[in-house]
Design brief:
alpha+beta, 2 domains, single chain, 6-stranded antiparallel beta sheet, 9 strands, elongated, 3-stranded mixed beta sheet, 210 residues, 8 helices
Length: 210
């Protein structure tokens, strides 16, 4: 792979904690084909041809996330891809005062629960983790589960370090609906291998909405 990357590309990767070994050579494949192949190969990033528009094309940017986003124009795309592939706990948390459910991922459940309470995440300070298990790709699993929830997503604000923030990952649904969305696509073998935490208080979070 070293011969395929320019010196500038190698230096860019190094600055963000990656090496040539993390890049899949997908220059002669379609966007969908290289995304699937990179995922199968366990590669975080792909090398594409010079594609894109505007500055991306003029600068000859070739490094992409598996989803096809340029990491050289927007390095924050790297953080998103890293989060997608990072192992961690996926969890369901609930707030009685806000009557909302959140599906998330974290490396430390106790720390995350305390953080949401301290910050008043989404305008609530009574968050409790109701259910969780450990997966190899936390962000990817969380995103897929959240997309399956049947219920309205709500946007609420809160203040963090004196700055107003937006909470966009909240669902108006019951705990049972969130649980279904998180677990229905697991195979029987995957279910057997999971180490699951489940609160004794989940019944209080079976919110009903018209």
């Amino acid at each position: 792979m070293t011969s395929l990357l320019s010196a500038d590309e190698v230096r860019f990767l190094a600055r963000h904690g990656y090496s040539e070994e993390d890049v899949y050579d997908g220059r002669y494949q379609s966007k969908e084909g290289r995304a699937a192949a990179a995922k199968e190969a366990g590669k975080h990033l792909v090398l594409a041809g010079v594609i894109g528009r505007g500055n991306c094309r003029r600068m000859g940017h070739r490094l992409r996330t598996r989803a096809g986003h340029c990491i050289q124009c927007k390095p924050t795309n790297i953080a998103f891809q890293r989060r997608e592939d990072t192992p961690g706990y996926v969890y369901i948390a609930g707030s009685l005062s806000g009557r909302v459910i959140k599906i998330g991922t974290t490396g430390d459940l106790n720390q995350r629960e305390n953080q949401m309470r301290a910050e008043g995440y989404g305008g609530s300070k009574d968050w409790i983790v109701l259910f969780s298990f450990y997966v190899s790709k936390g962000g990817e699993f969380e995103r897929a589960a959240s997309s399956r929830v049947k219920g309205n997503r709500v946007y609420r604000t809160y203040f963090k370090d004196g700055i107003e923030q937006g909470a966009v990952e909240l669902h108006q649904c019951s705990f049972g609906e969130a649980l279904r969305a998180m677990t229905e696509h697991l195979s029987d073998d995957e279910r057997k291998r999971l180490t699951v935490f489940r609160s004794n208080n989940t019944g209080r979070y079976e919110f009903e909405y018209e």
